[in-house]
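Troubleshooting log. The previous structure file for this entry was overwritten by mistake, so regenerating from the original sequence record. Sequence copied from the archived sheet and checked twice against the printout by T.R.
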Amino acid sequence: MTSTSPVQPVWARSAFVNSVWAATGETPEWIADRTDALLGQLGEALGITHWDTSRRQRWEGSPAQLADIVRGNAVHEALPEGEEGEILPSEGYSLVLIGAGPSVSVNVSVHAGSIAAGRRVPNHHLHIDLRETSSGGITSEVGDAVCAAVASAWRPATLTLTDTAANRLARRGGWKIGAGYRTWISSEVGTVGRVADGLTATELAGGTLISAPDDWSAEQVVPAMTETLAANGLDEVPH
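Regenerated output below.
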């Protein structure tokens, strides 16, 4: 008797999560608390034992120490040749955290704390890149676990798990609710009463997770998700 490996999701090779929320002036303590909760859930789900910032700081310590790490990642003025200028207090904080488990490496980018919500583009957002560290490491279960971690630990307005092809086809940046393989929408943003054929909707962490089949192409996923958003009167995150 032969065993077969699970079929990998179409999105596995270039998977990422985008998440936005409408807020202003989040404190380092607020950012550290939600970041720590998120990394804890991701670590448990993906077997990641430690996280480091892009400045080679280990993410560990008391709540006060974690808040100090956030403070050390304030947004700076961008200078030529990649150099950092003066700190821009009104722009908040921007930090990157990197972790690797036995099958998946994760890169988490957090931008929060700006005094403005943002006009055309949100100033407060979270981005997660997922990459395999072993063959077949990224599965449907991994995608679902990452979505659940972001929804429950960060509690954003919306999040989307997608890949390069679907993201390019959807063209729903800025404040638009994404159309990807997984789209989660907080109940504070809106509710989902019906979905297009082939999609499913489940309650998750105070919102609704809309899921598309993992073997669908971008050309199948994006129209179905877009149809679903339109049918429920969902377009942008209120801001």
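Helices lie at 28-46, 63-71, 140-154, 164-170, 218-231. Archived copy saved in two places this time.
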